[in-house]
Write a structure and sequence with these properties.
- By secondary structure, the protein is α+β, with helices and mostly antiparallel strands.
- It contains three helices and seven strands, in the order αββββββαβα.
- Strands 5-6-1-2-3-4-7 form a seven-stranded mixed sheet.
- A hairpin with a 4-residue loop joins strand 5 and strand 6.
Length: about 120
């Protein structure tokens, strides 16, 4: 159920973000939001897991990306990141059938280094 002023609000419920399309710098679809990671103590979104590749959910790869790399594009009704699909596919990733590596500090260190973003921790 959409609230009356939801389209004009600056906040969004996490369940409305899951599944949102992610577009690259060239406005091509490069994946979709799989889930958000939230810092337990600070309450801020730290990362977004993007599901990319594969076909109909089979063979998808998961990419953890610092939340600060994404911007919401109202024209596309999705999130934009300033990279191409090829650059995303070269980033650290894990398979859909692997354990969620987004909680692994060594993996997250590689992610933040790859995206040249200062870690939140």
């Amino acid at each position: 159920m959409m609230l009356q002023d939801e389209k004009n609000s600056t906040v969004i419920a996490s369940d409305r973000v899951d599944g949102t399309t992610v577009y690259g710098v060239d406005k091509d679809k490069i994946g979709k939001v799989d889930k958000l990671l939230i810092d337990k103590r600070g309450g801020n979104v730290t990362d977004v897991i993007i599901s990319a590749g594969g076909f109909l959910g089979i063979g998808d790869e998961k990419h953890s990306i610092p939340w600060s790399k994404l911007d919401y594009d109202t024209e596309l009704d999705g999130y934009r990141i300033d990279v191409t699909k090829e650059q995303l596919m070269d980033a650290p990733r894990f398979g859909a059938d692997e354990p969620d590596r987004a909680h692994d500090r060594n993996y997250q260190t590689k992610v933040y280094k790859y995206w040249t973003v200062a870690p939140y921790w």
